[in-house]
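Structure tokens please, single chain.
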Amino acid sequence: MSIFKALDYQRQIYLEGFTGRKPVVSPDWGQLEQDAIAKMDKSAAAYIVGGAGLHQTMTHNRTGFDAYRIVPQMLNNVENRDTSVQILDVSLPSPFWLNPIGVSEMVHPEADLAIAKAAAQTGIPMVFSNQASVPMETCAAAMGSSPRFFQLYWSRSRDLVVSLVQRAEQCGCRGIVLTLDTTLLGWRTQDLRLGFLPFLQGKGIAQYTSDPVFQRLIDDELAKPKDSTDFKPNITLSTIRNLISAVNRYPGEGGFLKKLRSKRPMTAVKLFTGIYTNPALTWDDLAFLRQNTRLPIFLKGILHPDNAQKAIDYGMDGIVVSNHGGRQVDGAIGAVEALPAISKVVNKQIPIVLDSGIRGGADVFKALALGATAVGLGRPYIYGLALAGQAGVYEVIRQLQADFELTMALAGCKNMEEITSERLWKDA
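Here you go.
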């Protein structure tokens, strides 16, 4: 893979513009979001774009960045620039990874597979979503040797936790990203307004229906005596459409009627909604995960410096400073607002990935200056997926790479080591 250079990419855009060809997706964030929302249906837009409550945390993710200003320094030789970083033993061409985003089939039929292919094209790691629309094995096969990680939601079934982690190892994942902030679903007003939860349609549960332990749990569920208290929905056109969706998405041979008679598709949906998260988790449970994987473990959802210190004390290999893109706790601290105190505690002992609110190259620069090792990209690349599939994800990644590299150089830095807090000015 050739080394990406921002000036070459920028020049290519202008030259293609000369011939009348514009970028596949807009490099302007506001236009990108607007275009993507117009392409999605209402349910998909609510799920992808929306946040918890009054969306205050989403606002904090942006105003947190706005509180810092970059102070460029002149006459530094930035002719040769190096944007590469190291996360443990994984070398990255740029300080990014693609955050796990579930149910991507809502915005494009190729879903996670298109994301995986674009990630491999650019060399940027993908974190496979636990709530994926395509099994991790399929995505891994499409990525070749390109780096990937696996996001884990800790299920109520420890056997299922172990099975998912073992599959991630077999898929060549370079680490487990344990999500801590979603042991319960937040109060997501946009989804609630529509009464929409994609998992009830059988969407976003491909990691489960492709798992042997989950299939065994379906067998156990089907063997139980029928419970007269089970929810029985009214039969409406919507009920029928959702039933068809769940049955058609269920894997395996046989047509629609065979799958329907087996009762497995709807049992899978019911089982998933009952066990996919575990609010009883504690710090002591981390020992179980450590015993059952040889992979490095990142804790995702850290916002308090005491939790960062605990992650180190409990032998974790990295943390992700994140508020789940503002989707869980309304009124929470912005991710970048939490970063300085966490960075001080961590003191470069383990890598820090900053996730939530990254929209442009300046955001990346500020995050690195405040102590992040790398940043996670979320909604931007999903918007690219919505607009142009694999090509759209690829272009969003390249645009952010170029934006960051040019920002870094124009600020007077030629590599990651030179991006420090001294390069920033903060509002009083």
